[in-house]
Amino acid sequence: MKIWLDGKLVEQEEAKTSVFDHGTLYGDGIFEGIRFYNKRVFRLEDHMDRLYNCAHYLLLDIPYTQEELSNAVCETVAASGLNDGYIRLVVTRGVGNLGLNPFNCKRSCVFIIADKISLYDPDVYENGLALITSSVRRNRPDTVCPQVKSLNYLNNILAKMEAVRQGAAEALMLNDLGNVAECTGDNIFIVKDGTVFTPPVTDGCLDGITRRVVLEICRELQIPAQEKTMNRFTITCADECFLTGTAAECVPVTKLDGYQLGSGKIGPVTARILARFQELAQTTGTSC
Ligand code: PMP
């Protein structure tokens, strides 16, 4: 497999970064997870905008223009020889000394991996996932803001472990007020009386690209949709619930902490949204 590392494609075995990289020492860096379908990169510009905004917030210099880095993504996809897959684009602070100060790091390190994607079992898209509510709260916006897609995922990893150890696929994460934020790697939506609801970004979720696409699809299909603060009661009493993310697309949720949600199967609104999402994924995107 070829990896794009700091400006060139190299063999996987040669794709090495330093143990003095602050990405490794401190989780000081950012990333994007992107999908490509039929060699076309889905919503590349949105992903790149989010990456550069996160870099701006962290005063992290990316030594390439957005156009250069978008071309690098395409180059990596072309070199993978795959038609469909998942791209991981990572920017770390780069090599510094053992101190915390990021301003001692001379140049950030950028790498891109394009690989096959492992998907949920097809059964999940019929019968839905089970969630538990995690005891670990999503970061408050005045800590590492959840809008920053940083390499610091330990909070979400703690929540994911809690889910896996209880036999659930995903964990619902609440914010410090006890309202719903998101899941460990996906945004959350519900459907109630024909309206689609999702928490606002300010309740502590990532501004997910798939979340944005789903809100666009709702407008297009004239399904009423709005952002709304929710708690566990709102989710428990939903007619339908689903998660969105680059890897998962739109995946139904039919259990929360042992409560059955809706009919216990994928709901009609979720199914319509998922079908349209898959159509868009297969027919739009940046050609490589
Ligand atoms: N929330 C979190 C915490 C995530 O890591 C992700 C990405 N896997 C998402 C939501 C979904 O975002 P996107 O649709 O941009 O993949």
From TrEMBL:
One GO BP annotation of this record: L-leucine biosynthetic process
GO cellular component: cytosol
Record's catalysed reaction(s): L-leucine + 2-oxoglutarate = 4-methyl-2-oxopentanoate + L-glutamate; L-valine + 2-oxoglutarate = 3-methyl-2-oxobutanoate + L-glutamate; L-isoleucine + 2-oxoglutarate = (S)-3-methyl-2-oxopentanoate + L-glutamate
Cofactor: pyridoxal 5'-phosphate
Pathway assigned in UniProt: Amino-acid biosynthesis; L-leucine biosynthesis; L-leucine from 3-methyl-2-oxobutanoate: step 4/4; Amino-acid biosynthesis; L-isoleucine biosynthesis; L-isoleucine from 2-oxobutanoate: step 4/4; Amino-acid biosynthesis; L-valine biosynthesis; L-valine from pyruvate: step 4/4
UniProt entry keywords in alphabetical sequence: Amino-acid biosynthesis, Aminotransferase, Branched-chain amino acid biosynthesis, Pyridoxal phosphate, Transferase
GO MF: L-isoleucine-2-oxoglutarate transaminase activity; L-leucine-2-oxoglutarate transaminase activity; L-valine-2-oxoglutarate transaminase activity
Top EC class of this enzyme: transferase
The keyword Amino-acid biosynthesis is annotated on this UniProt entry: yes
Its EC number(s): 2.6.1.42
Keyword Repeat: no
Function: Acts on leucine, isoleucine and valine.
Record-stated family: Belongs to the class-IV pyridoxal-phosphate-dependent aminotransferase family.
PANTHER family documented for this protein: AMINO-ACID AMINOTRANSFERASE, AMINODEOXYCHORISMATE LYASE
NCBIfam families assigned to the protein according to its UniProt record, in alphabetical order: ilvE_I, PRK08320.1
Protein's name according to its UniProt entry: Branched-chain-amino-acid aminotransferase
Gene: ilvE
